[in-house]
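A note from the maintainers: we've had questions about how concatenated examples are separated. There is no special marker in the raw files; a new sequence line simply starts the next protein. For clarity in this README we add a label.
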Amino acid sequence: MADFIVYCGKMLQVYKVDMADKLIYTQLMFNRDMDRLADQINKSVVSYDCIIGLARGGLIPAVCLSHKLGVSMNPVVWQTRDGGIRKKIENLKEDIASGANVLIVDDMIDSGHALKSFLDSHEITTDNVHIASLFYNIVQPIRPDYYCRIIDRELDRRCIVTGKQIGRAHV
């Protein structure tokens, strides 16, 4: 068991959490990963016209990459769980067909279902659309062009959690 601090408005709560099935992902790790993703993208031969951040988890990484790369970011709500909310981006297919380079960003490609559904719904099959993700599950069919951390969900089923553990530093 470990103690975790959780801020909710001005209230501070401390929870006991069983860490056996958790993988801690800290702000420092996130910052380093964003630098790594930006470096990977800058070293590629592609210059992006827009970044699409998939809500919920892909929005913060997409905004960070938008600032680091100097490229505008368009948020899109696309979920296959929690009610399956989906909102298509108008004119995306036409923009891609006209040659626009698009970077789709998500925090984690776990099952690949949400990303595949997004790509299929927008009829995206061209080479000018690329994918960036912080975490990449290697046992699902979609491979991102840029990623930082690999997970094999057949071997590692831990939940990825963010937070600050009291009394320990996680790097």
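[label: protein 2]
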Amino acid sequence: MTERPKARQRDQIDGLLSMEGKLPPQAPELEQAVLGAIMINDDRGMAEVGDILRPEMFYVHAHQLIYGAMVRLYEKGQDIDILTVTMDLKASGELDTVGGPFYVSQLTNKVAQSLHIQTHALIVVQQYIAREAIRLNTEAANKAYAGDDAFDVVESTIHDLEQSIAHNLKR
């Protein structure tokens, strides 16, 4: 299986930050709560977060795959619950990768109150944007060390960060 560019970028960020003794910005418990709330609330949950979340915004790879299954079901107009998500993941060959049906079913136990799904989703987005900022600034540092023109490096980094933020803040 070919490694996806976003996963490779996340691995690069993880490697850089772990060398410095820091973990990348992330909120796996909130990711679980968002996924669980969507399965509890079906299309109401997706209606609240579908415009602000994309699969790659989740830090945990399994959560990216699970949310991707939810998006597929939502786009087809199908119900989103533990069974349909599990069936979609099985059909796409991703069920074992996410931890199996047990992991999917346990996500609904992570929901304290589904009323806060949008707040939790926005925190997931903020963590993603912070990781993107780290990634872009790491790329800028590498270009600067390589001797690239400093003005071009700064200009392209600012442009890329603005594009990332604008693309991710469709609220």
